[in-house]
């Protein structure tokens, strides 16, 4: 139990660090330093793995499936424990209820289906046949997306897409690469990813409640014992039910946090990848170095650079490639508008309102090829 508790605390801490550590508000704090340390360790590990698997493509392919197989194995193992130790001990009214049994079957089947779909459905690969349509629908906004070429795929790069170095392809409306399913999450499978999150929460929450009801019924036979003693000092059935209830009580909130995070992204009209990019824009605004050049119709970052004489001078850099747009001498010729507040001075052109965002991401897929 102590080892289990320690592992859960470590896992929860890592999740919190990775979720919030790189937020602009935490820059320079211990949380951001810990985030960078974790990322460095992850980068070193990834570099070693890439180096090891580059010359061993079969090993690389197998290694990428270890986490999804681990996840499926854990779910199957826990479901087996539930039916072997908990289901038979449930109160008769619950065990014989058509509704409760129906929802158990639906929860397991639906999670299996969503896992298969999010794993094997193409997330929306950029190809020569769809890139023109993609660049027409997904246009650059001049803040976080620009007219660019993917030199790996040798194709134009539609806005909101990204090249995944793991999947070796550009993905339309790229959200993130999910290690749990060994697939990118993008235009065509984001709906299944949301279903995958919700159904994981549902299965764990429902299973946890059933385990608690089973323990509650068993408690009537051991009135003199506390809950901890009931779990650890009575029967194997109670011990398994207790472990499953504790695990679900911990992982339901963690999975729910990820689910709520994606609801927030839908509300804001961004993807996970774009949220990071907007975080960088917010950081520039907080520093007071983001400007809009009216005549060029372009955003720029104010920077301090060394000129040819060795003196430090002000310059304005393009956001896409950090090339110099204006020097301090040229500045008086242009109208510079300082961006002071993201909410008031900038517009996210990809945000169509919460309900339209939900429809666009989950239901109205532009094309299927």
Automatic annotation (TrEMBL):
Residues 147-277 form the Palmitoyltransferase DHHC domain. It holds the Pfam family DHHC. GO terms for molecular function: protein-cysteine S-palmitoyltransferase activity. One of its GO terms (biological process) is protein targeting to membrane. The keyword Signal does not apply. GO terms for cellular component: endoplasmic reticulum membrane; Golgi apparatus. It is a multi-pass membrane protein. The keyword Transmembrane helix applies. InterPro entries: Palmitoyltrfase_DHHC, PFA4/ZDH16/20/ERF2-like. Signal peptide: none annotated. It catalyses: L-cysteinyl-[protein] + hexadecanoyl-CoA = S-hexadecanoyl-L-cysteinyl-[protein] + CoA. Keywords: Acyltransferase, Endoplasmic reticulum, Lipoprotein, Membrane, Palmitate, Transferase, Transmembrane, Transmembrane helix. Its EC number is 2.3.1.225. It is found in: Endoplasmic reticulum membrane. The chain crosses the membrane at residues 69-88, 100-121, 193-215, 240-261. Belongs to the DHHC palmitoyltransferase family. SWF1 subfamily. The DHHC domain is required for palmitoyltransferase activity. This is Palmitoyltransferase. The lineage of its organism: Eukaryota, Fungi, Dikarya, Ascomycota, Saccharomycotina.
């Amino acid at each position: 139990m102590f080892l289990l508790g320690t592992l859960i605390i470590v896992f929860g801490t890592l999740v919190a660090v990775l979720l919030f550590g790189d937020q602009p508000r935490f820059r320079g704090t211990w949380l951001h330093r810990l985030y960078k340390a974790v990322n460095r360790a992850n980068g070193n590990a990834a570099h070693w793995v890439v180096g090891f698997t580059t010359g061993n493509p079969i090993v690389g392919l197998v290694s990428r499936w270890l986490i999804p197989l681990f996840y499926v194995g854990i779910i199957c193992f826990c479901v087996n424990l539930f039916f072997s130790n908990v289901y038979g001990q449930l109160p008769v009214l619950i065990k014989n209820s058509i509704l409760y049994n129906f929802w158990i079957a639906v929860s397991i089947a639906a999670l299996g289906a969503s896992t298969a779909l999010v794993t094997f459905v193409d997330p929306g690969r950029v190809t020569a046949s769809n890139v023109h349509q993609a660049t027409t629908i997904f246009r650059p906004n001049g803040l976080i997306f620009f007219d660019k070429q993917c030199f790996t795929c040798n194709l134009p790069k539609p806005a909101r897409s990204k090249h995944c170095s793991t999947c070796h392809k550009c993905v339309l409306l790229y959200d993130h690469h999910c290690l749990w399913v060994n697939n990118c999450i993008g235009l065509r499978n984001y709906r299944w990813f949301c279903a995958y999150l919700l159904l994981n929460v549902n299965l764990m929450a429902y299973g946890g409640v059933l385990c608690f009801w089973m323990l509650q019924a068993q408690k009537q036979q051991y009135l003199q014992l506390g809950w901890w003693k009931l779990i650890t000092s009575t029967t194997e059935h109670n011990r398994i039910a207790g472990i499953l209830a504790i695990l679900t009580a911990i992982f339901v909130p963690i999975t729910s946090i990820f689910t709520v995070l994606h609801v927030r992204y839908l509300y804001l009209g961004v993807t996970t990848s774009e949220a990071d990019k907007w975080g960088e824009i917010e950081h520039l605004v907080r520093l007071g170095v983001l400007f809009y050049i009216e005549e060029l119709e372009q955003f720029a970052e104010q920077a301090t650079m060394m000129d040819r004489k060795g003196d430090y001078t002000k310059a304005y850099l393009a956001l896409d490639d950090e090339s110099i747009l204006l020097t301090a001498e040229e500045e008086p010729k242009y109208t510079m508008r300082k961006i002071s507040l993201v909410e008031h001075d900038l517009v996210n052109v990809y945000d169509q309102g919460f309900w339209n965002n939900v429809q666009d991401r989950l239901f109205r897929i532009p094309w299927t090829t």
